[in-house]
Specification:
The complex is a heterodimer of chains A (451) and B (197). Chain A has 23 helices and no strands. By secondary structure, chain A is mainly α. In chain B, strand 3 and strand 4 form a beta hairpin. The longest helix of chain B has 22 residues. In chain B, the strands form two sheets. Chain B has a five-stranded parallel sheet with strand order 2-5-1-6-7, covered by helices on one side. Classes of the chains: A mainly alpha (451), B alpha/beta (197).
């Protein structure tokens, strides 16, 4: 009982400290993670086994951690090292691609292909945002897309705000389609042992259908207005050529090959047996080797704070899991749903969506994974169905408000720094109805397909 | 002025610090910056100045914004950063100026010509000044002072490692209620002239 209270107090304190943003969030989660290990497991539970299980070091040294074909018996509890190694690998690769000018080149190329016309630009960038976010973290996608959008808006004299809002939404939606698109999916995938294909065939289908609806929605909500506002005549003389974005042709080609290799490895990992931890490690090593003398610089640019944030977070959630708190939450959901799968799906998807609209969806997803696992085991319902509901709820819910997901923060920040202020009213007026629409459509698809 | 002089003046609300800052700038014949710098920023960003003024010297709203790495969508923090960059540019250009508030003593910390001043006042004097300036009742003046000082403190402490009004953090702290605005300006002018000799 003492251990449970301590675990909850530490978890709530961590959430509050993250929201208050007085102390950097990785320090908060690491300190709370340490408090969990010492106070919950050490003092209250006096269980060395719980500490070892939460630290999960043993798993890294098993073949199954790197190659799924030889999967060893392992626990999904505690620090999810596979997620951390994979995110590290993708960070290194993305830094290499950014340095080579890949993202800017792609944006400029597509803009040129649609002859810099605002409405086709608006629609193309939405699709590009969703497709890129399927493989690359949404922060990077939006950082480049929003910057290019603002640049083009200044040159072509249109209001970039509707475009940025649609790009943010599509980045979050695209991220929900794959295992590596959004951190909650990586955690869900590695914890519950789903493959890239599993995600594409399930959340990917939902995201694909939703993308069509979202494009129609944004066109009527903002695109038509852009068409009437734009002057029509486009002076493209001052617009930079796509090839100008390429810093170094050799680096550019190498980064494209590495990206293609990463995509192929991810798409085929269910067949090859390679785990995401292996793919992340290989991608990082290849990027570093091919970067030559720049490798050290690339390593320095990796966002270690985010990786440390994840480590601390997993330890805190491990505290809730080991003390049985999450099983109680699962039992509560099971009780109020009366064992009805549809009701469980509805609760999970809407609670996840509403929570993710206001708090970071990564801690939320990490906390909910043991809950859905326990719910599936105790209620005898399909874990897959609950996992897809959790994935769509956390990934899409974050789109509703400016603070819901990292891409929203980065997009609105880039816009504001360039003089385009997007307040809560302006943001939610466009994004909240789209979020509700997609969460509702996701729920209906899950009902029809799995319940 | 041959050598660059940057005078940062932090002040309690209603202390008369703003007035003293203006007098010092006039006496030294150097530029004076306060919230008016927002006019330049608004022009540069193609915005209405009122849109930026809403966020000037305000702390971020706790549950309404988030930070991701170096990116934040708190308009209070974005406007603060715009002002900090503006001040750094001015300082880099070699210009001498007086700046009121905006955490300037932190933003420009380490610059050779920086002189940091904190001006405070007796509560009664501050209330009287605000009552008179804004035609407020005593109660309303007290509330206004409390609100503004709270915001200034939160804003300052968010962007600075030093605490707002902590004497260890400024070159000189002075209570202008003791001598009045003019005499305090004279004392400060003496201090500044001795420093820049």
């Amino acid at each position: 009982m003492v251990a449970q209270i301590l675990a909850v107090v530490i978890f709530v304190a961590m959430f509050l400290l993250i929201v208050m943003d007085k102390i950097e969030r990785h320090i908060v989660t690491l300190a709370c993670g340490l408090a969990t290990l010492v106070l919950v497991f050490g003092v209250a539970m006096q269980s060395m086994e719980a500490i070892m299980e939460t630290l999960s070091f043993r798993g890294i040294f098993t073949v199954g951690f790197w190659y799924a074909g030889a999967r060893a018996e392992e626990s999904s509890s505690g620090i999810n090292w596979a997620t951390i190694i994979f995110i590290f690998g993708m960070m290194v690769m993305v830094e290499g691609m950014a340095k080579a000018g890949f993202f800017r080149w792609l944006c400029m190329l597509l803009a040129k292909m649609v002859h810099y016309k605002p409405v086709p630009l608006f629609l193309t960038f939405m699709v590009m945002s969703a497709v890129l976010a399927m493989f690359i973290d949404s922060i990077t996608v939006i950082l480049f897309l929003a910057a290019v959008t603002v640049e083009l808006a200044k040159l072509l004299k249109f209001n970039p705000v509707p475009m940025i809002l649609s790009e943010i939404f599509c980045a979050n939606l695209g991220g929900s389609a794959t295992m590596c698109g959004d951190p909650p999916n990586i955690i869900i995938g590695t914890s519950l042992e789903y493959s890239f294909t599993d995600f594409v065939m399930n959340t990917g289908v939902i995201a694909g259908i939703s993308l069509i609806l979202v494009i129609v929605y944004f066109y009527f909500a903002c695109g038509r207005q852009m068409a009437t506002e734009s002057s029509g005549a486009v002076d493209t003389a001052n617009i930079p050529e796509p090839k100008d974005a390429i810093q170094n042709k050799k680096d550019f080609i190498i980064s494209c090959i590495i990206f293609a290799a990463a995509v192929i490895m991810l798409v085929t990992h269910a067949q090859t047996g390679l785990t995401v931890a292996f793919i992340g490690a290989v991608i990082a090593i290849i990027t570093l080797i091919t970067s030559g003398t720049y490798a050290l610089e690339l390593l320095k640019k990796v966002d270690y704070k985010t990786l440390l944030f994840f480590i601390g977070l997993f330890a805190v959630v491990g505290g809730l899991e080991q003390t049985g708190i999450l099983e109680k939450i699962a039992a509560f959901i099971g009780e109020i749903s009366g064992g009805n799968l549809m009701l469980m799906v509805a609760i999970i998807i809407w609670v996840s969506a509403i929570a993710s609209a206001f708090v970071d969806n990564i801690p939320f997803a990490a906390t909910m994974i043991p809950v859905v696992k326990s719910l599936a085991a105790t209620q005898g319902v399909s874990l897959d169905t609950l996992a897809w509901a959790l994935s769509m709820g956390t990934d899409i819910g974050g789109s509703a408000t400016p603070i819901g997901a990292s891409a929203n923060v980065v997009g609105t920040s880039v816009a504001a720094k360039n003089g385009y202020i997007i307040g809560w009213g302006k943001y939610c007026k466009v994004a909240a109805p789209a979020t509700i629409l997609v969460v509702f459509v996701s729920m209906v698809i899950i009902f029809i397909r799995y319940c | 002025m041959e050598k660059q002089v940057i005078i940062s003046i932090s002040r309690e609300y209603g202390s008369g610090g703003h007035e003293i800052a203006e007098k010092i700038a006039n006496n030294l014949g150097i530029n004076f910056y306060d919230r008016s710098m927002l006019d330049d920023l608004a022009k540069e960003k193609n915005l209405q100045v009122e849109e930026l003024e809403k966020y000037d010297e305000k702390p971020r709203r706790l549950f309404a914004s988030r930070r991701v790495g170096e990116h934040t969508n708190s308009m209070e923090e974005i406007v603060a950063q715009m002002q900090f960059d503006y001040l750094r540019e001015k300082a880099d250009s070699g210009e001498s100026f007086v700046i009121v508030g905006r955490c300037a003593e932190t933003v420009l910390q380490g610059r050779e010509g920086l002189i940091s001043i904190f001006i405070l006042g007796d509560t009664e004097q501050k209330i009287m000044r605000i009552e008179e300036k804004y035609h407020l009742s005593k109660q309303d003046a007290i509330l206004k002072i409390k609100r503004h000082d709270k915001h200034r403190k939160q804003y300052h402490n968010r962007h600075s490692s030093g605490r707002w009004g902590d004497s260890r953090y400024y070159d000189i702290c002075i209570n202008d209620s003791k001598l009045g605005v003019d005499k305090t300006t004279e004392v400060l002018m003496f201090f500044i002239e001795e420093r820049i000799k």
